[in-house]
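F.,

This is the one I mentioned.
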């Protein structure tokens, strides 16, 4: 189909919330609305869903996030506020910053509790500008945890593949420990063994599924994505383990 073409093969539908775009912003809104019992439709202009998010590193800068707190990294909001004030300069918008600082940790908690999306901590990852006022040496980042694409069922075929530039043979390399193994593969036997295993499994996936089945980084948040139907009745479909099912 060319840009500008209109198809009439989509039947009319009704919903409480219409979300335009299927990146992290759109799908987060859709999942939240669905969890509140609203009937949601997500529309996407591309043939694949995931947007730029599916190409991304998948890291979220969320000061005071629950994973940091669980690891004993506790700070009040003043330090990240100071950091943002310094980094944003004239673009600092108090209302948005306060909403971000308050709702960011709640958002991570919500996804981990209510959906299949899980996170790994970035407690050892420092802020980009470590010399700026309010900067920390770690504890303000989380990343979507890797997961097996089979969980997505038939929707997997519609998930945007990882960015080819940073994914050899279509194999996404997870930030953190996995990336460290790849960088050390020629210096350390354990890393070499890890990388060999990972590449072999990926090649087997290519033979069997024609695509890597280990979804990492920005590809991983799709775990809570559209076909986990967006209706109140199916809200529990988002859950990894649901006591009611
Ligand atoms: C290689 C790479 C690595 C990155 N790593 C990170 C990182 O680690 N951490 C970080 O914070 N950021 C990172 N980013 C940036 C981050 O990916 C984006 O800021 C984020 O994904 C934007 O999310 P979004 O939901 O706003 O938009 P998108 O994910 O782009 O989603 C928007 C969606 O809307 C659709 N759309 C647009 N217009 C319409 C329309 N009219 N009708 C229907 N659909 C429409 C688009 O097709 C798209 O699918 C990275 C970016 C890249 C490219």
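My design for it:
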């Amino acid at each position: 189909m060319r840009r500008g073409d209109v198809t009439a093969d989509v039947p009319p539908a009704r919903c409480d919330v219409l979300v335009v775009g299927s990146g992290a912003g759109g799908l987060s809104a859709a999942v939240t609305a669905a969890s509140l019992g609203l009937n949601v439709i997500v529309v996407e202009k591309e043939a694949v869903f995931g947007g730029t998010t599916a190409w991304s590193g998948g890291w979220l800068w969320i000061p005071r996030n629950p994973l940091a707190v669980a690891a004993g990294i506790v700070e009040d909001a003043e330090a990240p506020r100071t950091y943002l004030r310094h980094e944003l300069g004239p673009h600092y918008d108090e209302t948005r910053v306060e909403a971000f600082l308050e709702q960011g940790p709640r958002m991570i908690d919500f996804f981990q509790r209510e959906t299949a999306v899980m996170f790994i901590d970035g407690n050892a990852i420092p802020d980009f500008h470590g010399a700026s006022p309010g900067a920390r040496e770690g504890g303000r980042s989380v990343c979507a945890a890797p997961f097996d694409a089979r969980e997505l069922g038939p929707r997997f075929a519609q998930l945007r593949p990882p960015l080819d530039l940073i994914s050899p043979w279509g194999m996404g390399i997870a930030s953190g420990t996995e990336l460290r193994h790849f960088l050390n593969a020629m210096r350390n036997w354990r890393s070499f063994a890890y990388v060999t295993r990972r590449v072999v499994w990926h090649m087997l996936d290519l033979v069997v599924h024609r695509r890597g089945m280990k979804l990492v980084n920005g590809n991983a948040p799709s775990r809570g994505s559209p076909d986990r139907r967006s209706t109140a009745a199916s809200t529990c479909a988002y859950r990894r383990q649901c006591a009611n099912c």
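The radius of gyration is 20 Å.

Talk soon.
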